[in-house]
Amino acid sequence: MSKLGFMLILDTNLLAPDIVAEYMSQHRQPFFVSSVSAQELLGMQRPGKDTGYSYALPVLDEHLLGARMGVPLNEMSRRFGDHASRSPVSKHADRQVAPRSLLGPESLELGHAAVSIAHERGFDGLFRAFATSGLRGKKLKRVLSKWELLRNDIVAVIPLDNEISAQAAVLADQFVMSGCHVKGTVRNTRNDMLVAATSQITGMSLASDDVQLMKFYNEHGWNVTTRSSGMVATPISQIVGPQKVLTRRSESRGYVNRPPKIRVPIDYGRTPSLR
Q1: Of 20, 89, 167, 242, which residue is the least packed, with the fewest Cβ within 10 Å?
Q2: Residue 14 C-alpha from the chain's centroid
Q3: Residue 33's closest CA among 122, 142, 165, 149?
């Protein structure tokens, strides 16, 4: 994948209105987030658990669903939203198997392409329907506000794909072997490696305020600089690690990790079932 110009991925810990506003006042480049960060921010992943989802969106794209069925995409979004109360984790969520690493066994990731597409296409009603089905009370209110933050201030959500997952497994092995401390759950650290791999594979700089992670990045393929607004890690080169054998293809119908306008669909040769 070709490297992009200086564009900035914001880590999950920077996705707060005041911090984003500060970055916007100091940086002129567009801001992106990984779908992993979006899922953390939006409460999709079960807190304190290494697996599982509170809710997951169905993947909707005219190349995948609407055009094939002859149903307008907005109408498809409404239909899926009506079904959210029955199951907050949609059976039509895209699936991505993340390879095993020294952090733990392989894991099933859900809804990464879906949240990227919902963000890009403005499927606000669809998002609200599934979030309302999977969350309650004050947490739901906070998540709805965070969705508005993503929609208003973030150019695109970069979806997880096979290449990023494989690179994250390499980074996870290096993280463990370097003696770095796993904070929180294994999933938290796996997510950190997926976000880092997104930076490396796309060639986009990563902004974070996590000192331990920045130290690790500096030692494993990034140039880390400190700015008035925080730390920025810029990939020096993609790390070529041990060959990872993926036993399954992603069913995410995901996208090459590029910004809108130059993003192209990947055809994996299968049509998602709607039965």
Answers
A1: 242
A2: 15
A3: 149
Distance, in Å, from the CA atom of 206 to the CA atom of 184, rounded to the nearest integer, reads 21
CA distance 206 to 31: 10
Instruction: Identify the DSSP state of 243.
Output: P
What pTM, to 2 d.p., does this model score?
A: 0.81
Which residue is associated with the tokens 């910004």?
A: 259
* Position 3 pLDDT exceeds 70: no
Q: Per residue in 145-169, is it b (16+ CB within 10 Å) or e — as a string?
A: ebbeebeebbbbbbbbbbbbbbbbb
Burial 106-140 (b: 16+ CB within 10 A, else e): ebebbbbbbbbbbbbeebbebbbbbbbbbbeeeeb
- Average the pLDDT over 121-133 and give the result: 92
- 187-205, pLDDT tens digit by residue? 999 999 999 999 999 999 9
Phi, psi of 42 (to 5 degrees): -90, 10
Q: Where does residue 198 rank: exposed (0-12), middle (13-18), buried (19+ CB within 10 A)?
A: buried
Residue 274 has pLDDT above 60, yes or no: no
Task: Name the DSSP letter for residue 12.
Answer: G
CB-CB contact of 93 with 109 (8 Å): no
Kindly report the backbone phi and psi dihedral angles of residue 130, in degrees, each rounded to the nearest multiple of 5, phi listed first: -75, -40
* Helical spans, DSSP H, in the chain: 17-26, 35-41, 67-69, 73-82, 112-121, 124-134, 137-153, 162-177, 186-202, 211-219
pLDDT at 15 over 60: yes
